[in-house]
């Protein structure tokens, strides 16, 4: 079944989803607030013509409209081996936009030497398509590119340092690598005589270069509170990478609760956190930090990451190194068959998504317009993420990329 026909598949409506849609439809759109300096769009950036905008949930009338479309959960048809999941459909499919973002992302990776010798696999994985699907509230390829650079840099940190020995990862080096990589996003400020050494270290390693360059690009669209949020989320992600490295070096399988807590931090939170930056508005720091918002956002992000676990099982099975995913951890702890473990993992995913849906609906009632738009964006992110995983050759191809 094609991606488009899956998107168009009959949907299972949900009362809470309709409530959110109705609430959001009553509110006008949020005006862009994020800084966008003059000339920040590269030459050749695609114009935001009416025809392109029409399909997107942006602008004054867009918020209600998009929310009405995205607050529709469903048990969708999945790829081989992945059970039906409760997840919204992707809101749009714009292959031309995806292609443009992917091409620019590849040009950037080539320029900085990221994934040298493996760029065909990166091209095939189609992270440009992920950005197009997951951020339907902009059709600006440069904003999608900024988010794509950050995401690819974070993925590369995982591949180069954590779980791909063919790319040089080694558990003994992980902590040292992550510590230096952090300086790429939150610059080190040593006494003057050490500055050249730090600068050299940033340039010597493609992961560090990618992290620094991705953050610099996003800084064109984000204010300082949003950038601090992003740095924080990536620091937390690095804690998760370290946690996985510890299990790997000990040869230890975590408990299910421990793995789930891990998948909240070794997760797509840093991607989801860019939702307003890409959309062109600012979710106030106090609202992002509200524990109720954090709970909703992290539950959604964990669910999105479990989608990765489910779709990447085959790829991980083919890998030489020890791989961790929820079905494997459940099978070990609960002594069930792999199929049962997959079903139980899907049920956990669904519970997280339904809880997000319910709690986001409540938060939308009392929150700011920016929070409503952000929560709608998170919901859209879930749909785009699932659609991408179900079609990306990173997870479906027989000779799988790293
Ligand atoms: C883009 C981003 C924030 C990635 C960080 C976390 C990450 C690498 C994943 C959620 C993907 O998990 P995994 O390590 O299993 O990756 P692949 O399955 O190899 O794509």
Automatic annotation (TrEMBL):
<keyword id="KW-0456">Lyase</keyword>
<protein>
    <recommendedName>
        <fullName>Terpene synthase</fullName>
        <ecNumber>4.2.3.-</ecNumber>
    </recommendedName>
</protein>
<feature type="compositionally biased region" description="Low complexity">
    <location>
        <begin position="41"/>
        <end position="55"/>
    </location>
</feature>
<dbReference type="InterPro" id="IPR008949">
    <property type="entry name" value="Isoprenoid_synthase_dom_sf"/>
</dbReference>
<dbReference type="InterPro" id="IPR047945">
    <property type="entry name" value="MIB_synthase"/>
</dbReference>
<feature type="region of interest" description="Disordered">
    <location>
        <begin position="27"/>
        <end position="67"/>
    </location>
</feature>
<dbReference type="GO" id="GO:0010333">
    <property type="term" value="F:terpene synthase activity"/>
</dbReference>
<comment type="similarity">
    <text>Belongs to the terpene synthase family. 2-methylisoborneol synthase subfamily.</text>
</comment>
<dbReference type="GO" id="GO:0042214">
    <property type="term" value="P:terpene metabolic process"/>
</dbReference>
<dbReference type="Pfam" id="PF19086">
    <property type="entry name" value="Terpene_syn_C_2"/>
</dbReference>
<dbReference type="InterPro" id="IPR034686">
    <property type="entry name" value="Terpene_cyclase-like_2"/>
</dbReference>
<dbReference type="GO" id="GO:0046872">
    <property type="term" value="F:metal ion binding"/>
</dbReference>
<keyword id="KW-0460">Magnesium</keyword>
<keyword id="KW-0479">Metal-binding</keyword>
